[in-house]
Amino acid sequence: IGGNKVKKIRLLFVAFGGFLLITSLLITSMVSAAPTSQIVIALDTDVPTMDPHRHAERAGVIVNWHNFDSLFFRQYDMKIVPSLAKSYEVVNPTTVVLRLREDVKFHNGEPFNAQVVKFSLERVLDPKTKSPRITSLQWLKSVEIVDEYTVRLNFKYPYPIWQEELQNLAMVPPKYIKEKGDEYFAEHPVGTGPYKFVKWVRGQEIVMTANEEYFKGAPHIKKVIFKIIPDPSTRFAALLAGKIDLLRNISPEEIPILEANKNIKVYTVPILRFGWIYFYDALNPDSPFYDKRVRQALNYAVNIPEIIKEVIYGLGTPTVVLNPLHFGYDPEVKPYPYDPAKAKELLSEAGFPNGFSFTCHYTTANAIKVDEVMQAIQSQLAKVGVKMKLQKWSPVGYMELIDGGRARPAFYLNWGSFGVFDGDAILFPFFRSGQRYAFFHTPELDKLIDQERVEMNPEKRKQLMSKIQRILREEAPWIFNYAFHTTVAANAKLDYKPRSDEMYYAYEIGLKE
């Protein structure tokens, strides 16, 4: 963790060591003993729905992971292995046969089989479902049932990352959903996962209990409670008081306090998530953002390295379009340098010598100090004459707000790629025409994205993705921000390791002796 502010905090910590030590001892005495049968995980926002096919929000994905399983699973080492699919055979570039586990049941006793796979995948693809996960399956032509525990997946075209897409796409119970209906399922989920749903008190908590018959073995942690605590200071206080056991997105100035507490362990890890400001109206001829020079100017006007250093204390890496953890990331595609003089020159050339005004929509979910980051960007843009008004929204339903066209003319977004460590998880949904979040696209980009999606040679794919990144860097449809590093605090008696895909998975967590 870098930054002068962190250094100052640590100096203050030493200077007032006696006071902080007493404070820490008092706090330590408040922390409850490690959980013997349950874990409490803090979320910064409620989930929009318990239906894993009908949302695209991180809190919901974390919760869903406990109730549901997918055909494949990403291990802690980030390798993808079979899960509900016990094995597979690549028959040819557009045909894969999956052999399924025969020992799995849903929490209501409904059997897992080939019919489940067909129903689940077709449900996501059905326009009536209105699933934001549809982009994960647009390569899929059809699902054929070979026998009770074998399915054949037929692709529309060769697709190199089909396992990536299937590792976080939940299998759901056909009979239960048909009997109860989608709306009931959205509030009373039934999966095959390591934990069974108990209750959801909106805005407060979600409770789950161990599935003792889980096909991978009964969980060590018998009860999982997700506490919904939107306010950062309240979450921090709850952690110190021992009311929660696991908390991500720790604010950097809080780290020294936590490190002084022997009952809490702090972890920092780079993750797949990163953020940007998207010019929603980049293709609107009536908008200033229609002019590439304006979009470039705003990138020159924002000092991302300074924001990383001074606002988020070093917990980020400047980037363009892709996260360094994505396959296909090209480190030679460099971020815009900070050059306000160049920004003013471009604005003048574009017909805005005195700048202009616009509104940027944003929410604070899944990130630290978003308010401060947005205010810093606002201040830097003002120095080149561009007035950015900030409109803050609740995290719940934010993606629907964007999808519904209410985030014009620009909005901030951070994105975890659904845990897909491949650049296509960004390029396709955000820059291929026809996709719900593709507010900037060109015929050339469409052609290149279509090519990289079917290219089975990894090196050729990298070359195509590098070209896409260079075009997007030039076109500047975003104010490019940074890839995230996240800091997680955990009860020291938990046997826990943070994941680069920023998932909590209670099934992987144990208790130290």
Description of the molecule:
A hairpin with a 3-residue loop joins strand 8 and strand 9. The chain has 17 helices and 19 strands. By secondary structure, it is of the alpha+beta class. The longest helix has 18 residues. The strands form five sheets. Strands 11, 12, 13, 14, 15, 16 and 17 form a seven-stranded mixed β-sheet that branches. Strands 1-10-9-8 form a four-stranded mixed β-sheet, covered by helices on one side. A four-stranded antiparallel β-sheet has the order 4-5-7-6, covered by helices on one side. It is globular. Helix 10 runs antiparallel to helix 12, helix 15 runs antiparallel to helix 16 and helix 16 packs antiparallel against helix 17.
What keywords describe this structure?
single chain, 513 residues, alpha+beta, seven-stranded mixed sheet, four-stranded mixed sheet, 17 helices, 19 strands, 32% helix, 23% strand, globular
Number of helices: 17
What would the principal axes of the Cα set say about the shape? globular
Which structural class do you get from the secondary structure elements? alpha+beta
For the termini, the CA-CA separation is 31 Å
Radius of gyration, taken over Cα atoms and rounded to an integer in Å: 24 Å
Strand content: 15-25%
Mean pLDDT: 91
Which regions are unreliable across 5 or more consecutive residues at pLDDT < 50?
1-35
Q: How many distinct beta strands?
A: 19
